Amino acid sequence: MTLFSFLGAIEIGLIFALVALGVFISFRLLRFPDLTVDGSFPLGAAVCAVMITGGYSPFLATIGATLAGAVAGLITGWLNVKLKIMDLLASILMMIALYSINLRIMGGPNVPLINDPTLFNQLQPAGIEDYVFRPLLMCVIVVLAKLAMDWFFLTERGLAIRATGTNARMARAQGVNTGGMILLGMAVSNGLVGLAGALFAQTQGGADSSMGIGTIVIGLAAVIVGESILPSRKLILATLAVVIGAIVYRFFIALALNSDFIGLKAQDLNLVTALLVTIALVIPQLKRRFAKKH
C-alpha cells in the first residue's frame, strides 16, 4: 500500500468515524434501530453540494448539512414517538422518503464539486499537499466532535437520553420525558451523519443520490470492530473505541482491496465488510470461551 492510499484510507475512516458516532448514539445509547442513516448521509452531502454551488460559504454549507441531518433524525423520532410507528419501520419509511427528497434537493442524481471551494481547500496552508492536509483536518474535526459528544452525554440531558435507552420505564418514573429524549438523541445522531455526508461530498468532489447505500452497515461495522478492540462501559472509552473501529475497518478494507495477491476488486467491498464484521463478532465469543477454560 502506498502512502497516498494509506492516508486516503485514514481520511475516509475518519469521515465514517462521525457516522459511527451517530450510529453509536442510536443503537447503543438509545437502543433505537435506525436505518435513517442511509438517507441522512446523502442528505448532508446533497445539501452541502447544492449550497456550495449556489454560492454559499463551505462553512455555512457544512452547518446546513448538519442541521438537515438532524431534522431527518428528528422526523424519524417523531414518527415513532408521536405516531407510535415501530422504531425500525419509522426509520425505514424515512430512509425511503429521503431518497426522493435528496433527488429533489439536487435536481438530479448528482451535483459535482470540481472547481468549487470546500472546507479543505479554503483552510489548506501553502506547502502542504492536499492528501496530507485532509486527514489532518479530519482528525481535528473528529476529535472535536468526540469531545463535544462526551461532554454532552455527561450533562443532565445527555444522562436522560442514556437513561431512556437503558430503561425507559424507570426513566419515566424518575420524571424524564422519554419521548423528548428520543427526539433529541435521534437529532444528534443524524446530525453527525449529515456532517459526515457533507465532508464526504467535499473530499470526493460532489454528491450522489446513491452514496448512502450501505452507510448503516459501515457504521455498525465500525462500532462492532471498535468494541472488540477496546471493550469498555465508560462512555469516553466507548466513543474512542468507535473512532478507532472506523479507522481500523477502513484501513483493512483498503489493505484488502490494494493487495494484489488476494485478488479482490472494488465490487468485493460488501464481501470484505461482511467478513470483517463476522470476525469482529466471533472474536469476543472465542475470548469468553478461552477465559472459561482457563
Automatic annotation (TrEMBL):
<feature type="transmembrane region" description="Helical">
    <location>
        <begin position="211"/>
        <end position="230"/>
    </location>
</feature>
<feature type="transmembrane region" description="Helical">
    <location>
        <begin position="269"/>
        <end position="286"/>
    </location>
</feature>
<keyword id="KW-0812">Transmembrane</keyword>
<feature type="transmembrane region" description="Helical">
    <location>
        <begin position="131"/>
        <end position="154"/>
    </location>
</feature>
<feature type="transmembrane region" description="Helical">
    <location>
        <begin position="175"/>
        <end position="199"/>
    </location>
</feature>
<keyword id="KW-1003">Cell membrane</keyword>
<dbReference type="GO" id="GO:0022857">
    <property type="term" value="F:transmembrane transporter activity"/>
</dbReference>
<dbReference type="Pfam" id="PF02653">
    <property type="entry name" value="BPD_transp_2"/>
</dbReference>
<protein>
    <submittedName>
        <fullName>ABC transporter permease</fullName>
    </submittedName>
</protein>
<dbReference type="InterPro" id="IPR001851">
    <property type="entry name" value="ABC_transp_permease"/>
</dbReference>
<keyword id="KW-1133">Transmembrane helix</keyword>
<feature type="transmembrane region" description="Helical">
    <location>
        <begin position="235"/>
        <end position="257"/>
    </location>
</feature>
<keyword id="KW-0472">Membrane</keyword>
<dbReference type="GO" id="GO:0005886">
    <property type="term" value="C:plasma membrane"/>
</dbReference>
<feature type="transmembrane region" description="Helical">
    <location>
        <begin position="88"/>
        <end position="111"/>
    </location>
</feature>
<feature type="transmembrane region" description="Helical">
    <location>
        <begin position="63"/>
        <end position="81"/>
    </location>
</feature>
<feature type="transmembrane region" description="Helical">
    <location>
        <begin position="6"/>
        <end position="27"/>
    </location>
</feature>
